[in-house]
Design a protein that fits this description.
The chain is an alpha+beta fold. Helix content is 50%, strand content 10%. The N and C termini lie far apart (55 Å). The structure holds protoporphyrin IX containing FE. The site of protoporphyrin IX containing FE has 22 residues, from helix 13 and helix 18.
């Protein structure tokens, strides 16, 4: 991409237009649609608050309720804006495949833009393709195998320090572990004395997106402060990283160069690193927590996963040795179906468009709901049941529709770290089953906090014993 093509994106000249659009949108008349199209059905809820409180309280159940009430396309008012929900695989496909380029990442920008400014997921169209191509150079198969050896080392070290007990809070332990992985593999460093401050900054930036009050106080304010801490940290570390020849992801972004000589600027590297650390860290923690929970609830599956891991012995996990752990693969897929680590994705229309026969005007926020798609009885048998075999070759329920199962999203923004994330979670699970056994009480049902990405409200206590 030439500098000329790039320049308009570097300066946010359109901020005022967007501010105006945010204010104008609530007055857009959803009840009207051009001939041949239906308006989007829905309702605004309470004055000011809309349906925000029900969404925060009920999360997925609220989405299900709306789906049953209105069908796959409906609108709701929440978090200060009106949002069209594209639920179910058919509607999701229209939005994520984005054939007429109507759906932009400006949806994410509204919710997390101030905290993850110009991260890959917030870029659009040609500019996104340019950055994604460059970033892909840090995720080649060769690089991935190098990262995986290092992931194995960090995981073994970290897990060996766990002290088993009844009521062991596994979620915070996994969060620390995935942060250790991210700092080691992404930055070839440990966070040292800054660890607590940086961890808090990551947590605050992620949670800020669903703040009800978008002022520099409370949840939103903490997110802004968190962004500053992270920017300072990466900017300070950048000159040394540019000069180094280390094989971490931070260095890979600094040195990425296409055959046409395209490279990332310092700002690009800082913005991408902040987004990548977040994207890699929280999602993997949630996927591993869900897996640990379901294995704790289903000891027969835990035993089967363990048997395969023990048979593999001390062989390092690589793309080919992972193939010897088929049960772990089924269990991870099923865990991410039952708890989608990124339960919803958001876009914003940049022109009027049609969604399953409904008229969606320009400037509208549109969400797709992977978690809901994962649980629709039209596509899954007994959807709430933990049944890893539904992914086995003779059943493959995930093939019922291209967008029935989508923990990593779909379309051009599909997760760039999908292979890294999957291998990281499997590496952690492999080490855990080899060293420990764990259970959760039969009557315990973990409650996932739906206010940002799904987190276990109580830290997910398990009864952990050493083998
Ligand atoms: C289990 C782990 C993970 C899950 C479930 C997950 C899920 C997702 C999803 C659903 C998206 C699409 C968002 C959208 O379309 O709006 C996404 C995008 C992304 N993910 Fe992941 N992710 C995981 C791990 C990772 C890791 C380990 C990395 C980095 C090493 C990463 C980096 C990214 C990036 C950069 C994007 C934006 C891609 C783009 O816009 O082109 N993710 N992820």
């Amino acid at each position: 991409m030439s500098t000329a093509l790039r320049a308009p994106y570097d300066v946010d000249k359109n901020a005022f237009d967007r501010w105006l659009m945010d204010r104008a949108w609530p007055r857009k008349d959803l009840a009207k649609a051009p001939a041949g199209l239906k308006p989007v059905p829905g309702d605004p809820g309470l004055p000011l608050l809309g349906h925000s409180l029900e969404m925060l309280r009920l999360g997925l159940n609220y989405a299900m309720k709306r789906y049953d009430q209105y069908g796959p396309v409906s609108w709701v008012r929440a978090f200060g804006v009106n949002v069209v929900s594209a639920s179910g695989p058919e509607a999701t496909q229209v939005v994520l495949a984005n054939r007429d380029k109507a759906y932009s990442q400006k949806g994410w920008e509204y919710f997390i833009g101030p905290f993850f400014n110009r991260g890959l997921m917030l870029l659009d169209f040609d500019e996104h393709i340019y950055h994604r191509r460059l970033m892909q150079l840090a995720f080649t198969a060769d690089r991935l195998s190098g990262y995986m050896v290092q992931v194995g080392d960090v995981v073994r070290d970290s897990v060996s320090s766990w002290s088993p007990k009844d009521g062991f809070l596994v979620y915070p332990a996994l969060k620390q572990l995935t942060l250790d992985v991210a700092t080691k593999i992404f930055m070839a460093t440990t966070l040292g004395g800054e660890a607590t401050k940086l961890t808090k900054a990551f947590v605050d930036t992620v949670r800020a997106g669903t703040a009800l009050v978008r002022l520099p106080i409370g949840r939103w304010g903490a997110g802004l402060a968190g962004r500053k801490v992270l920017e300072d940290y990466f900017r300070r570390s950048l000159p040394a990283k540019r000069a180094s020849d280390s094989d971490d992801l931070f260095a890979a972004l600094c040195h990425a160069r296409t055959d046409d000589g395209e490279t990332f600027t310092d700002d690009d590297v800082v913005n991408h690193m902040i987004f990548l650390m977040m994207a890699a860290h929280d999602t993997s923690t949630i996927a591993t927590s869900a897996l640990v929970y379901y294995l704790g609830k289903n000891p027969e599956w835990q035993a089967q996963v363990r048997a395969e891991s023990l048979a593999l012995g001390d062989e390092p996990l690589t793309v080919s040795t992972l193939e010897k752990l088929p049960t772990l693969d089924l269990v991870l897929k099923e865990s991410m179906r039952l708890v989608a680590p990124v339960p919803w994705m958001v876009r914003r229309t940049v022109k009027d468009t049609e969604l399953l026969g409904h008229h969606v005007p320009e400037g509208v926020f549109v969400t797709t709901l992977s978690w809901l798609n994962h649980l629709l009885p039209e596509y899954w048998t007994d959807p709430l049941r933990f049944d890893p075999e539904r992914f086995s070759e003779d059943r493959r329920e995930d093939k019922s529709h291209r967008f029935a199962y989508m923990p990593f999203g779909g379309g051009v923004h599909k997760c760039i770290g999908m292979h890294f994330g999957t291998q990281e979670v499997k590496t952690i699970a492999h080490e855990l089953v080899r060293r420990f056994e764990w259970t959760v009480p039969a009557d315990y049902d973990v409650r996932w906090d739906p206010t940002a990405l799904p987190l276990p409200k109580d830290g997910l206590p398990i009864s952990l014993t050493r083998r």
